[in-house]
Amino acid sequence: MDASDTHLLLTLLEKQPVAALSTLHQGEPAGSMVPFALLPGGRGFVIHVSRLAAHTGDLIANPAVGLLVIATPDATTSPLALPRVSVQGRARLCPPEDPAYAEARSCYLAKLPQSEGLFSFQDFSLVVIEPQTFRFVAGFGRALTISAEQFAGLSRA
């Protein structure tokens, strides 16, 4: 992975506010949208979910999840050429008593400060998605798979 692709991948994940979350719902694939933030050092993705949402029950029942982050489309770029990354990982609840909670909350609110009010809702919980593999498409003919360890080595923080 060259420096240009590394910069593109990290910028995509740092700047895009939402991802498509894939879970298994009653044994069938299901997709939803979630705001997300990165933990330092590429250790994981933080989402803040409501127990009222089907995807929350899904990821508790089966923590194997996927995240898809896509660059913002514009009128001059073919949708097939948009940079994107698909992340396969394992989700785990991160309750307030978890030692990782303060850092996860801080990272989430640093990226999504407008979400602070949701932390007062009792049905919302932080979830950390620990990545296993990344499939990064930087554009036509520029795709590669990287491990969580390789991603951690690329991360800026």
List the helices and strands and how they pair.
Layout: H1 3-15, E1 18-25, E2 28-35, E3 37-38, E4 45-50, H2 54-61, E5 64-70, E6 84-93, H3 101-111, E7 124-139, E8 142-147, H4 148-154
Antiparallel strand pairs: 1-2, 1-5, 3-4, 4-7, 5-6, 6-7, 7-8
End-to-end span in angstroms? 18 Å
Task: Give me the CATH architecture, please.
Answer: Roll
Strands, total number = 8
H/E element string?
A: HEEEEHEEHEEH
Strand coverage percent: 35-45%
Please name the CATH topology: Pnp Oxidase, Chain A
Q: Unreliable segments (pLDDT under 50, ≥5 consecutive)?
A: none
For the CA atoms, what is the radius of gyration?
Answer: 15 Å
Written overview of the protein:
By secondary structure, the chain is α+β, with helices and mostly antiparallel strands. Helices cover 25% and strands 40% of the residues. The chain is built from four helices and eight strands; from the N terminus they run αββββαββαββα. Strands 1, 2, 3, 4, 5, 6, 7 and 8 form an eight-stranded antiparallel sheet that branches. A hairpin with a 6-residue loop joins strand 3 and strand 4 (45-50). The mean pLDDT is 94.
Q: Quick summary of this structure?
A:
The chain is of the alpha+beta class and 157 residues long. It has 4 helices and 8 strands; from the N terminus they run H-E-E-E-E-H-E-E-H-E-E-H. The protein has a single domain, classed as Roll (Pnp Oxidase, Chain A), CATH 2.30.110.
From the structure above, extract its key features:
alpha+beta; eight-stranded antiparallel β-sheet; Pyridoxamine 5'-phosphate oxidase; 157 residues; HutZ; 4 helices; Pnp Oxidase, Chain A; 8 strands; Split_barrel_FMN-bd; Pyridox_Oxase_N; single chain
